[in-house]
Amino acid sequence: MTGSDDCCDKAPGFHWFRREADGTYAAKGEVLVRVSAIQAGPSIADAVKLQALSDELARYRMRVRFADWDDDGHVDILAVDTRSRGRIARTRGRWRPEGAVDAAAEVEGSPKVEHVDCQPVVIDWDGDGRLDLITADHVLPSRDARAYTCRVWLQRNEGQAGSPRLGPRRLLTSFENWGVTVGVDAADLDGEGRPGLLLAARTGEQAPSYRTAVWYHPRRRPPITPGTRRDAGPDASRQP
């Protein structure tokens, strides 16, 4: 069980917890994640105005996801550091959950960090046995718009075992009138054998009045055309 740093930490990483024999979770400390291509910013001492200080602290955000991305039998860290000029970073090979970890490699084909507004989702979305990537961003649909549109993007893994490579971004879905604080995940919650989207966002304008709500968007199997079989081919039971 882990939790990413989401604000104001000048040495961002993640906190991890181990499940004990009695079912409770014990905090085991923080692991710093060092990502290359980090932008240099003004020091806190130079941020005289309150807004400047707030903007500077907001630059330090770390979002991580764990997966065996290159299929080498070891869990990798996929890291989004909001100060980075590069793409989603990742570790290679073994690492230990203590001290600091270097995420020196990039996830080939992944979007630049500036276009990743929440924790990335790593899942076999199309059922071909390879891990795909889902990311989300937000955009104002027009100059006079007051509410953001959340866009969820899918990138299929077009590489081979041991050499993952993401294809172009494809718009999976979008949601209007959403704020910039959005969480995305994917899981098969309805037992259909296909992962659906989980989307979390604030439902109010300001604290303490706002609440966080979670919506589940299942992916239904397409109807069977008369005269065909469900297992007629590798894509017969899939949809984007």
UniProtKB/TrEMBL annotation:
InterPro entries: FG-GAP, Integrin_alpha_N. Residues 216-240 are annotated as: Disordered. The keyword Secreted does not apply. Keywords: Signal. The keyword DNA-binding does not apply. It comes from the Bacteria. PANTHER family: PROPROTEIN CONVERTASE P (PTHR44103:SF1). This is FG-GAP repeat protein. It comes from Aquisphaera giovannonii. The lineage of its organism: Bacteria, Pseudomonadati, Planctomycetota, Planctomycetia, Isosphaerales.
